[in-house]
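User: Please predict the structure of the protein below. I'd like the answer in structure-token form so I can feed it into my own downstream comparison script.

Assistant: Understood. Taking the following sequence of 274 residues as input:
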Amino acid sequence: MEKLIIAAAICGAEVTKEHNPAVPYTKEEIVREAKSAYDAGASVIHLHVRQDDGTPTQSKDRFQEIVDAIYKVCPDVIIQPSTGGAVGMSDLERLQSTEIVPTPEFATLDCGTLNFGGDEIFINTDNTIKNFAKLMKERGIKPELEVFDKGMIDIALKIDKKGLLEHPLHFDFVLGVQMTATIRDLVFMVGSIPPGCTWTAAGIGRAEFELAAAAIIMGGHVRVGFEDNLYIEKGVLAKSNGELVEKVVKLAKLLGREIANPTEAREILSLAKK
């Protein structure tokens, strides 16, 4: 079985210091959390950025500032900017994260509209998805196909049939938002993608480590981090993203999977560092 890639979603756009005081906002805090995850074994940093007051932003300048700072302390890490941003952002606003220098080697591509709860709807029309895929292909950015239910896999495969994606495809199954996060669901999702694809599982909240263990056994990869879950165990807030990554490393050791470093992760994901 190939080595395990661990991605750390270190801050997201929705969680706040009121939920967990360790959630990073400032450049210094985001770099601290990226370094803690990297040192613990993460080879991919899934990156949202914030203003210093915690407001989510897709500002190109803010992304550039923070990406440059992360590379100073983690020079070989894979930085995966989010093109999702936050609820209510325009497509052009969201795409600013792909305009930094060097051009990102990897970025997210959300494959459908999502109910976040209450009145919050994260809109991704067919044209949005097509345009994002086309732009990423033109810029040489590998998309991580973010899917929150089975229908989004079908949308991704429809986009692929239009020639807008490069193989091998890579999926991220984010379960526990719109689709329940059980091992049954993960098995169904994995069985719904074409042979030869790579995939990562991200369980939201209490499902994070259950799905991580399943992904390790099934030969997939794992995403953890404050964006998805704030607790190291029931009722105990995690002190850092690194602590969450360390728990996955321990699970992997128990289950017989070695951890991929960034060079190995690039090979598994068919990335080329720029």
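That's the full token string. Residues 198 and 269 are 7 Å apart (CA to CA).
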